[in-house]
């Protein structure tokens, strides 16, 4: 009986260790996108379980190489850095139809999160995104048709975002020296 108890205790310990490691394994399965920019690289992790249509849309733009060669065209220190829609000549790239707003997903526009840019129409997000460089509570959803949909966060390279956010800008908050997204690739 004592031997049987030891065996069950060992099994219970192994099961507990495996169960404790499960959330880490789940978190590691979130898709990641690596951005290589003219100022350095950063990686974002996206959450399809929180913003399924937004993430699907974003990852399709990544797979289509839409972001390659675009610029960060709007940079406001102590607010956000925005990119993904314009070429270096400030021509807007063609986009697919917009996705419905998924701002009420429990994710907040906090420091280091990535969210979809849009017009005053809540359901107008296409390809442009922004990275919050501080907590921007006023961008969070208060109702069903407002807010900005957060769909991921920067997991490495926040120092690059911090370099971009202080880039000198001219009219329209456009960086004087262009900050180019050389490539955006699915890292996992």
Q: Strands, helices and their partners?
A:
Elements: H1 2-28, E1 32-37, E2 40-46, H2 52-63, E3 70-76, E4 80-83, E5 113-116, E6 129-132, E7 150-156, H3 158-165, E8 180-186
Antiparallel strand pairs: 1-2, 1-8, 2-7, 3-4, 3-8, 4-6, 5-6, 5-7
Descriptive overview:
The protein has three helices and eight strands, in the order αββαβββββαβ. It is globular, with a radius of gyration of 20 Å. A hairpin with a 2-residue loop joins strand 1 and strand 2. Helix content is 25%, strand content 24%. The termini are far apart. By secondary structure, the chain is of the alpha+beta class. The chain has an eight-stranded antiparallel beta barrel. The protein folds into two domains: 29 residues; 156 residues, Cyclophilin, CATH 2.40.100.
């Amino acid at each position: 009986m004592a031997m049987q108890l030891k065996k069950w205790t060992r099994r219970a310990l192994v099961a507990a260790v495996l169960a404790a490691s499960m959330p880490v394994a789940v978190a590691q399965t979130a898709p990641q996108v690596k951005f290589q920019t003219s100022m350095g690289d950063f990686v974002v992790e996206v959450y399809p379980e929180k913003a399924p249509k937004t993430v699907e849309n974003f990852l399709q733009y990544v797979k289509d190489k839409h972001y390659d060669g675009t610029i960060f065209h709007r940079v406001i220190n102590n607010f956000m850095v925005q990119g993904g829609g314009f070429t270096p000549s400030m021509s807007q790239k063609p986009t697919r139809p917009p996705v419905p707003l998924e701002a009420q997903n429990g994710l907040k526009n906090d420091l280091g999160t990535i969210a979809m840019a849009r017009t005053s129409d809540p359901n107008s997000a296409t390809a442009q995104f922004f990275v919050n460089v501080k907590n921007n509570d006023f961008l969070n959803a208060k109702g069903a048709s407002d807010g900005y949909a957060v769909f991921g966060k920067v997991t490495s390279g926040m120092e690059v975002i911090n370099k971009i956010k202080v880039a000198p800008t001219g009219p329209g908050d456009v960086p004087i020296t262009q900050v180019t997204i050389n490539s955006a690739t699915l890292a996992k």
